[in-house]
Design brief:
Peptide Deformylase, alpha+beta, 17% helix, four-stranded antiparallel β-sheet, five-stranded antiparallel β-sheet, 178 residues
């Protein structure tokens, strides 16, 4: 399992930098993917990008309840439609906001075995992938919050109250975290 970097950590600047492509899918990349999935599940998230665990490579993992999805060097090739909904982020704990995203996307990348993959994703899966690809580009969900309104999310009570949008923000799992 890996430590998730938050915006409050000394090494948080990695969250604002563009990640570099993985030259190829190696044994080390596959180990990173396993650790990212373990970390995501242990944190009750639905998505995780490599920079969130301190690795500046273009690797994302996701699971919206239909099994794990892994994309190495993902690239969004088409977007359509619109959806507006709540997002949070494991790297910005306790904060959520309303974000507008494409409702349907086509994304290309590689699997954990290095095979090329093209995927059509809609609704929540599209939101999660777009959120994680943003991480690879140094963009946080708080940069996209509608009206700049952020909300605090209390994990136990799941209550929300408004707060200022001066913080950087992912997609929410059951506990409000990505």
């Amino acid at each position: 399992m890996r430590r998730i970097i938050t915006i409050h950590d000394p090494d948080a600047s990695i969250l604002r930098r563009r990640s570099r492509p993985a030259p190829r899918v190696t044994r080390e990349i596959r180990a990173l993917i396993r650790e990212m999935l373990e970390t995501m599940y242990a944190s009750n998230g639905v998505g995780l990008a490599a920079p969130q665990v301190g690795v500046p490579l273009r690797v994302i993992v996701a699971d919206i309840g239909k099994g794990p999805l892994v994309l190495v060097n993902p690239r969004i090739v088409r977007r359509s439609g619109e959806q507006v909904g709540p997002e949070g982020c494991l790297s910005i704990p306790g904060v959520a906001g309303i974000v507008k995203r494409a409702r349907r996307i086509v994304v290309t990348g590689q699997t954990q075995n290095g095979r090329k993959k093209t995927l059509i994703a809609e609704d929540l899966l599209a939101r999660v992938i777009l959120h994680e690809v943003d991480h690879l580009n140094g963009v946080l969900f708080i940069d996209r919050v509608e009206g700049g309104m952020l909300y605090t999310v209390e994990r136990e009570e799941k209550a929300a109250r408004p707060m200022s949008a001066s913080l950087p923000l992912g997609v929410m799992g059951d506990d409000g975290a990505v």
